[in-house]
Amino acid sequence: MGSRWRSTVQNLLESWTGYRLMRPRGNDEVRRGLARAPLHPEIDRLVPEPVFLLSSVRSGSTLLRAVLNSHSQLHSPHETHFRRLQVVPTTPPAYQALEVDGLRVVDVEHLLWDRMLHRSLQLSGKRVLVEKTPSNVFVADRLATAWPRARFIFLLRHPLAIARSWHAADPNRRPMVRAVPHTLAFMQQLESARQRHPGVTVRYEELTADPETVTRRLCDFVGVDWEAAMLDYGRVDHGEWRAGIGDWSERIRSGRIQQPRALPDPDEIPDSLRPIARAWGYLPEDDAGAVRPPSRASASA
Question: Are 108 and 45 in contact (CB under 8 A)?
Fold first, then answer.
């Protein structure tokens, strides 16, 4: 009786307004045991080996993506936020059809995500896709499940420099008291992904100080020949620099890899950032503290 009543109300609501009420879903489908590898990899994945650049916000990922995108065979678009695209069947028969075909909703979402990335790659005319949306750190497990042959680049930056950069982008609405915990959630998830998945780790400070060495290492990892033109990213059209899909500052618009700013003094690092700073090598090993595991709340960011 209850389910029939709910169905009647839903149908009336949809007929009157065009909308349906949906139960909220968590983002970490792996933890809920719903996500799985493609059933038919040769058919279900048009981009079988994407490269995911995982980083916190304000870590220099836009600079790195512009440098990589300047390579003739590497396509690194603006942040696509593809994981925010959800598939929502609106009728029981739609669910039944998926069940008969042996599919789950998350399977279809993976098909959609893969098709979006494939379209972007095909339009570029290049061979390898590198995606860099920072919030992907919250679903690294799901990405590894959906693309078993995915490769990961982990981009680190001094934790206090990350928090200060996020604050500086909008000082009035992003005070440091908010910037530190907000960016720390990304950093903790990034470190958790580094511990669970193979990949290559690079530092923003090394990228800006010695870009040739870093990009040569990344080209070896991805499987392409190094090109000197990568160091002159300003010569390539990377699309619009826009807030929400990457950095938009004058620094990135300059088209030049600029020397890094001086690192914060160790005494300036807040207590909450010291464990992750130590884990990433920005504090001595004997500095007290350990990286705390990501909380359930931060995993839904």
Answer: no
